[in-house]
Amino acid sequence: MLPTLLSQIVNGLVLGSLIGLIALGYTMVYGIIQLINFAHGEIFMIGAYGGLAMFTYLLPTFVQQQWYLALPLLLLAGAGVSVGVALIMERFAYRPLRNAPRLAPLITALGVSVALQEGVRVFYPGATAALPFPKVFVQGTWAIPVPGGTVPLRWTGLLIIVVSLVLAFALNSFVNNSRMGRAMRATSQDRDVARLMGIDPDRVIVLTFVLGATLAGVAGILYGADLGFINIDIGFQNGIFAFTAAVLGGIGSIKGAVAGGLSIGLIKALGGQYLPGGTAYDYVWIFVVLIAVLVFRPQGFFGETERVRA
Amino acid sequence: MNAILEATGVTMQFGGLTALNDVSFGLSEGEIIGLIGPNGAGKTTLFNCLTGLYAPTAGQVGLRGITLPVDPARVTQQGVARTFQNIRLFPSMTAEENVLVGRHVRMKQNPLSSLLHGPGFRRSEADAAEHTAKLLAFVGLTKFSDELARNLPYGDQRRLEIARALATEPSVLLLDEPTAGMNAQETEATRQLIFAIRDLGISVVVIEHDTKFIFTLCDRVLVLVQGELLVEGTPDEVRGDPRVVEAYLGAPPDEVDAQIHAAEETR
Q1: Are the beta carbons of A124 and A53 closer than 8 angstroms?
Q2: Domain limits at A30?
Q3: CA gyration radius, chain A
Q4: In Å, how far is A198's CA from the nearest CA of chain B?
Q5: Beta-bridge partner residues of A154
Q6: CATH code assigned at A250
Q7: Which terminus in chain B has less CB density within 10 A, N or C?
Q8: Rounded mean pLDDT of chain B?
Q9: Do B85 and B176 contact (CB within 8 A), yes or no?
């Protein structure tokens, strides 16, 4: 009994921290330019493919064989490719629409999402099917002894939890206690006044995309390393979860994105284990909870109620 | 006298509407200028032109002889700061953070150092915090340092806006109705604050409807009516000028009476 419960909690935390890492990108971009960047899931997917490409085509065999050499390089490559694509996307797809009605960039984001997904399918060799992802971390599981049995935790799962939490804390500290972090918050609250304080909104927006894409790229590598394969749908699937997590936690809030991600991971794992329908219905519970939360607390866990400015 | 801020022939048209017509004035170092005029006279529009929010249709604004760009961020960098008629603080940031945002243009942080909390980053944050604490003490808001801006009492929000503007280390401070909605006591405190700011060597332009406040505060008063600079002079000169009385308070009572009589007779 207890080992099963704890195992599902562990599974939930692994998935949840990964979702949270992606959700941070959604929530930050929304906070600054009120855009739901539906292409953010694809930025995560492209990070995974970027890492895979580096491993397959650039790394010499002796580096491939040592995870402690390969993993840092893959994380850099994943983050780098994600940031590059995000910068191009911001510059050419979103910036020209900065002052357009909100619907225009939203539809553009959907278009960018489809374009990126299809682009990888067409141009990445073999991407029409799932591709094996290199084992760039310690394989196997840690059997945590508990009363009545053991709880298995994959080492890659532990890696996901640790890296996600460290990055989320670093981001939170950056946003709260640094010059550019305060500039980001100021821009999200009143862009015109931020400009009058000497803040360049374009730089703030670019920085926001860079930070979000870095986290998404890292998440892509961690996801591939944990699952052992990737395909071009992972961006859409995890992007929807991450977007839901950002809304659940309160869009615009960093704490909220992490809390929302962890909640979704736990609901999926525990719902699949204990609620009727099993894993076939685990997605359903996520959205049931989302609806329930939004009915009673539309701004999410940590969101701020929208106020009309006088 | 050498003007620190100088507007030359500033004209601002919105479509067919001329909001400002050929407005020129100079602000000297350590001077307090009052800008008065009826609603819609173009006072705030003038502030928007001075701070680079609007590109004037004609004319230009110079700071120490150098033409200011039409870019609010760079105007702030060069030393012009302002407050707003409707308070526009960052509501979900604390008083301290609001002032720290004002420090933005005077801080340098390298991104890597900010992420890793390197020594350069920590020094820069410590300096900014110290500067901020001084400014909050200067405007008397030390006790609200960690309070969210939106929770501050109204008068204190206005003072916080002034502290945030001062954090940019301006040589010229533009105050848009700094005493609007204040009681007599708060208004007096604001007057003392503005004198203290002037004593720091900062030149000040104040928009205000309260003429008594303006006449006892300012070295010079400009009267703006329908986008034109109607009268300019010392408080005493301006107070006595019949054109100002008419433009600002409406026609003299006898004339108004005459008009009412005329209207009644035609009916």
Answers
A1: yes
A2: 2-296
A3: 20
A4: 4
A5: A141
A6: 1.10.3470
A7: C
A8: 89
A9: yes
The length of chain A is 310
Give CA separation, A182 vs A177, B32, B102, in Å.
7, 32, 10
Query: Is residue A306 in a domain?
Result: no
Closest partner residue to B93 among A170, A180, A185, by Cβ?
A185
Mean pLDDT computed over every residue of chain A:
93
Judge whether A283 lies within some domain: yes
Given a cut of 70, is residue B255 above it in pLDDT? no
Provide mean pLDDT across the span A22-27.
Answer: 96
Strand partners, B233: B221
| Minimal Cβ distance to B82: which of A177, A196, A307 | A196
Residues A185-220 pLDDT 10s: 999 999 999 999 999 999 999 999 999 999 999 999
Element (H, E) at B202: none
CB distance B107–A307 less than 8 Å?
Answer: no
Number of domains in chain A: 1
Taking only the tens place, the pLDDT of each residue in B52-70 is: 999 999 999 999 989 999 9
Coil, strand or helix at B93: coil
Q: Which residues of A touch B148 (CB under 8 A)?
A: none
Minimum-distance CB partner of B109 among A179, A186, A307: A179
Q: Do the domain assignments include residue A202?
A: yes
Write phi, then psi, for B175 (nearest 5 degrees). -110, 120
Distance of residue A54 Cα from the nearest chain B Cα, in angstroms = 24
Say if A197 is an interface residue toward chain B (CB within 8 Å): yes
B55's CB contacts (< 8 A; 6+ apart) are: B70
Report the pLDDT value the prediction gives residue B258, as an integer from 0 to 100: 66
Q: Measured in Å, how far apart are chain A's first and last C-alpha atoms?
A: 56
Give pTM, 2 decimals: 0.90
Among the partner-chain residues A170, A189, A196, the one whose CB lies closest to the CB of B72 is A196
| Cβ contact A193–B84 (<8 Å) | yes
In a domain, A90, yes or no: yes
Q: Averaged over A238-250, what is the pLDDT?
A: 94
ipTM of the complex model: 0.86
Residue type, A97: L
The pLDDT value recorded for residue A310 is 37
Q: Are A18 and A219 in contact (CB under 8 A)?
A: yes
CB-based contact (8 Å) between B83 and chain A? no
